[in-house]
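Dig into my protein:

:::
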Amino acid sequence: MVSRSTILVASVTGAGVAATASALLMRRARLARPDLFPVYRPLHRMIEPGEPRQVAVIYNPTKTRAEAAVRMITAQLGFANWPRAFFYESTLEDPGTGLAQQAVKDGADIVIAVGGDGTVRAVANGLAGTDARLGVVPLGTGNLLARNLELDISDLNGCINVALHGTSQAIDMIHLELTGHGKELDPIDYLVMGGAGFDAQIMNDTREDLKAKIGWLAYVGASFKHVFTRRRPAQISVDGGTPFARKIRTVLIANCGKIQGGLNLASVAEASDGRLEVIVLTPRNVVSWLRLAGQYMTRRPDTRFPVVEHFVGTSVTVDFPRQPLPVEVDGDVLGEVDSMTATVVPGAVNVNVYPEELEIRTFSDLVEAREDLVEQQVRWWQRLLRL
């Protein structure tokens, strides 16, 4: 005869196994269909739709969640009673710049970039100098612009809400001119950060399959290969000033500086301040790498033995007199260069961001937002129960 204790243990064990299996299935389903399983953000107030606008969506079909994002955008447009969006699929030949220009010609007021940093940069290039707004739906590994705009990259539904109904903010771009092996290369514009040396070497050696599986952690493995390579000489001139020499591990030119893990590499630069920041990293050995990490964690510069220096201006020229170095912008490797000149382009692109007046930072903000939050919670449960 089976005892009651045996039955109880079996029941508890079975319930635990079932709960674990359900959780795993739920997680797998959320990854596959994030549009069906909405993220609940108890302190995030959703933005209400305004006057109807024409929306265009440029999406990278290679991203696993691109189709789900397209469905969610279509659904939110339906809820807002806005016109159906124009949809454009990016390609290797046109990652978004030409498509964005065509979207503006077709009458789009808001052009949403659905993809990684490369797609966002390409679409922004196509919108620069126009009145059309850029919306960002981040599906990449770094999602650097989204981080600097303080979007919640884990909340796809929330990012789409901001992309459609956010407040317009003009942000700067960096115009980069390059010379490689004595020849002028095609110039490029970017939104977040570009650099030569260590960072470009990491980007170049990071495996795409690992990025797809473990995200930004894939960069960590590639970094070990180049941590202790020889530093390279560089001549740097900010705002046309007298050039100064450094032996660099890497030199970064930032429009803004937030990266993965909540780290901000820049000291003062922000996306809308009309300035760029030159970040020079010169660690030589394990001790200096540790000092560099300490400087960033404490945000205190080491003025006696600096391993990272910051220079702020509106333009910078960097020459590599002995050996060309690889360059990357917003995570895309461009090849090796002998010199690069970067100039800030103030207010080049209008981007939809989360409105400051809806942010909840204090207890009084929470009290003021309580009715909106309760209503959002009711909607969330209703949607979940309909699954």
Summary: Residues 4-32 form the longest helix (29 residues).
